[in-house]
Write a structure and sequence with these properties.
The structure is a single chain. With 285 residues, the chain is of the alpha/beta class. The protein has two domains: 86 residues, Leucine Dehydrogenase, chain A, domain 1 (Rossmann fold); 124 residues, Rossmann fold (3-Layer(aba) Sandwich). 42% of the residues lie in helices and 15% in strands. The strands form three sheets. It has a six-stranded parallel sheet. The protein has a three-stranded parallel sheet with strand order 3-2-4, with helices on both faces. Helix 7 links the parallel strand 5 and strand 6. Bound molecules: NADPH dihydro-nicotinamide-adenine-dinucleotide phosphate. NADPH dihydro-nicotinamide-adenine-dinucleotide phosphate (NDP) binds next to helix 10. The site of NADPH dihydro-nicotinamide-adenine-dinucleotide phosphate has 25 residues, from helix 10.
Length: 285
């Protein structure tokens, strides 16, 4: 068997063009959606993500601003800027690029973002909304995974979904979003005994570990949907996922590549959340 490869680039473009019409309508009504991205320090990977986000915003007509701070900036300075952006009527989404330098307490910084502008969905209010099934801003990476499943007509209800990784930005929200849609969930971590025993039982396997090519074909049930969230920079500069693409594609039913899988979807879902935030702001006027 050879898996159907899910093209994240094509799907992300399709979603952007769907949402561009929402942005165009807002602009006609005098409200251009606006996104502010805060970046502290000069982590090269973060700088690339921020540049890609700005480019994607331009494509759909979102005004975007990057607020850069030096590595030694104080948490108070960054918080003061977030407070200004909270009351800036041109800005509907505020995103703090993670990770922040070690002298920052990320949760304190995120807690200052207005819940109406928290387009990453990491504010505790929005986390609570997700837990209770009243999601306002679905976190962008798992939201992108859900869209990939939906656009490929992959049924979630009743299936067994196994998620490898329990981070607050991928694993946990992914589990909640699949649970909400009726899947039976297993979450695996670095402490899981016999990982393969769990992954082999997955109808849908979502992998977010951060270790290159760790999931091999013997760990996958024939015909399973395998979603590779991992992005690992290899010594030769290339990117690899957490799934061993070449062997797993012979076993899985569907598989996402890296690059060109979940990564571009994450950015498109950020744009959707920003446009949705602007629509809600307009409805409040
Ligand atoms: P974290 O480091 O926060 O979490 C990794 C998780 O993997 C942890 O829960 C950890 O378990 C688990 N883990 C580590 N080793 C093993 C193991 N041997 N067996 C089972 N579980 C293990 O990473 P993130 O969730 O932030 O990111 C994961 C990957 O996804 C990274 O490669 C990252 O670059 C990528 N990523 C991609 C995005 C995209 O848009 N495509 C967006 C965000 C992240 P424990 O908790 O026990 O330590």
């Amino acid at each position: 068997m050879s898996a159907k490869i899910i093209d994240g680039n094509a799907l992300a473009r399709e979603i952007r063009s769907e949402w561009k019409s929402h942005a165009d309508l807002l602009i006609e009504r005098g409200m251009q959606p606006g996104l502010a991205v805060i970046i502290v320090g000069s982590n090269p990977a973060s700088s690339i993500y921020v540049r890609n986000k700005a480019r994607a915003c331009d494509e759909v007509g979102i005004h975007s601003e990057v607020h850069s701070f030096p590595e030694n900036a104080s948490q108070d300075e960054v918080i003061a800027r977030i407070r200004e952006l909270n009351i800036d009527a041109r800005i509907h989404g505020i995103l703090v690029q993670l990770p922040l330098p070690n002298h920052f307490e990320s949760s304190e910084v995120i807690s200052v973002i207005s819940v109406e502008k928290d387009v990453d969905g990491f504010h505790l209010y929005n986390v609570g909304a997700l837990v209770t099934g009243n999601t306002v801003f679905p976190p962008c990476t798992p939201f992108g995974v859900i869209k990939m499943l939906e656009k490929n007509n992959i049924a979630i209800e009743g299936c067994h979904a196994v998620i490898v990784g329990r981070s607050n930005i991928v694993g946990k929200p992914m589990a909640l979003m699949l649970l909400e849609r009726g899947a039976t969930i297993t979450i695996c971590t670095s402490k899981t005994r016999d990982l393969a025993e769990h992954t082999r039982r997955a109808d849908i396997l979502v992998v977010a570990i951060g270790r290159p090519r760790m999931i091999t074909s013997s760990m996958v049930k024939p015909g399973a949907v395998v979603i590779d969230v991992g992005i690992n920079r290899m010594p030769d500069g290339s990117l690899a996922g957490d799934v061993d693409f070449e062997s797993v594609k012979e076993v899985a039913g569907h598989l996402t590549p890296v690059p060109g899988g979940v990564g571009p979807m994450t950015i498109s879902m950020l744009l959707c959340n920003t446009i949705a935030a602007a629509e809600r702001a307009l409805a409040r006027i």
